[in-house]
Amino acid sequence: MMCESNIYNTNDELIMEDVMSVKIDGDKISMTDILNNKKSVKGKFVQLELEEHKLFIQEQ
Questions:
Q1: How far apart are the first and last CA of the chain?
Q2: Superkingdom of the source (predicted)?
Q3: Less packed terminus of the chain by CB within 10 Å, N or C?
Q4: Burial label, 14 (beta-carbon count in 10 A; 0-12, 13-18, 19+)
Q5: Which long-range contacts (CB under 8 A, 24 or more apart) does 16-20 make?
Q6: How far apart are CA 34 and CA 25, in angstroms?
Q7: So where are the chain's domains?
Q8: SS3 of 35, please?
Q9: Cα distance between residue 20 and residue 34, in whole Å
Q10: What is the DSSP letter of 18?
């Protein structure tokens, strides 16, 4: 069973899909997807909908 999540901003715009790993370092959020693509944004998590595999970031 795979447990990827999609990351959205607070405008419900997709930032990254199929995310397997998230690292938080202060206001920097680094994500890695199932194909090992990486992306970083500045912001903070404001909502986690784990059953729907959706995470929401308020970007700075």
A1: 33
A2: Archaea
A3: N
A4: exposed
A5: 19/55
A6: 21
A7: 5-59
A8: coil
A9: 6
A10: E
What amino acid is encoded at 26 in this protein? Answer: G
pTM: 0.90
Quote the distance between the C-alpha of residue 58 and its chain's center: 11
pLDDT digits 0-9 by tens, 7-55: 999 999 999 999 999 999 999 999 999 999 999 999 999 999 999 999 9
Type of residue numbered 36 = N
Cα dist. 26→17, 30, 43, 56 in Å?
Answer: 22, 11, 9, 16
Decide: 42 and 29 in contact? Cβ < 8 Å.
Answer: yes
Q: Which residue has the tokens 């909502």?
A: 47
